């Protein structure tokens, strides 16, 4: 462990990653998304490992690929989705765990838009449902995460559009319906000196992971009270090298983590 709790990631490729501990992980596979967008800001891998998505800020499109066994390097492009009629400045993407709903974060108006998919995981069947605008509570959102039961949402962003980042918990009174979201707890992430970007909550709510969009750093906070961001401890930071990490997603068992790298425009699989 280095200064300020920073850990350099292991490079022992034959050793599996310790679940939920990215410092023990190794880069397994990657896929270059540059031909679709050179400012990738959001990504998602379907729960069955057969679909991969990327939200690009340059063209404000969501792209979909078919993949095999969750491997990014098997990607075959399928289609794209244009949601600019509902918002621009895309910088976050999430789905309901069964693929029937899609959520796109747009920083042009500090909002997250929700869509229903009449065919699960097929973004060409998306229809607009509604939005949550959070600018009055939390400006310039940079990334977000929805829990697997759809009752909580976490948003990272600027506080009053300054260089101070924060994370806020939003509670959804109707699961998966972001129009029913109300803000709960919020706390500054003053340890981040670059750009707080993607975020992910461990399945049991005891760890918060935030990526740095200006560096190859992943921050890992332990929550002493599950789901309550005001109980964050001191983060362990893992430096993965020369990267700009704009999003993060773990598999539900913590054995694999996906990272979106804006420096080189790759979706990376670590395990």
Descriptive keywords:
4-stranded antiparallel sheet; Neuraminidase; mainly beta; 5-stranded mixed sheet; 271 residues; 21 strands; 50% strand; disordered N terminus
Q: What is the count of helical runs?
A: 0
Mean pLDDT: 91
Biggest sheet features: 5 strands, mixed
The CATH architecture can be named as 6 Propeller
Q: Total strand count, please?
A: 21
What is the CATH third-level topology name?
Answer: Neuraminidase
Characterization of the model:
The structure is a single chain. The chain is mainly β and 271 residues long. It has a single domain (3-270), classed as Neuraminidase (6 Propeller), CATH 2.120.10. Helix content is 0%, strand content 50%. The chain is built from no helices and 21 strands. It has strands spanning 6-8, 27-32, 40-45, 51-56, 61-68, 71-82, 90-95, 101-106, 111-117, 126-133, 141-146, 152-158, 165-172, 181-188, 196-201, 207-212, 217-222, 236-239, 245-250, 257-261, 266-270. It has a five-stranded mixed β-sheet, with no helix packed on it. It has a four-stranded antiparallel β-sheet with strand order 2-21-20-19, with no helix packed on it. It is globular and about 40 Å long. The two termini are 20 Å apart. The relative contact order is 0.17. The model is unreliable at 1-12 (pLDDT under 50).
Question: In terms of topology, how is this protein built?
Answer:
Elements: E1 6-8, E2 27-32, E3 40-45, E4 51-56, E5 61-68, E6 71-82, E7 90-95, E8 101-106, E9 111-117, E10 126-133, E11 141-146, E12 152-158, E13 165-172, E14 181-188, E15 196-201, E16 207-212, E17 217-222, E18 236-239, E19 245-250, E20 257-261, E21 266-270
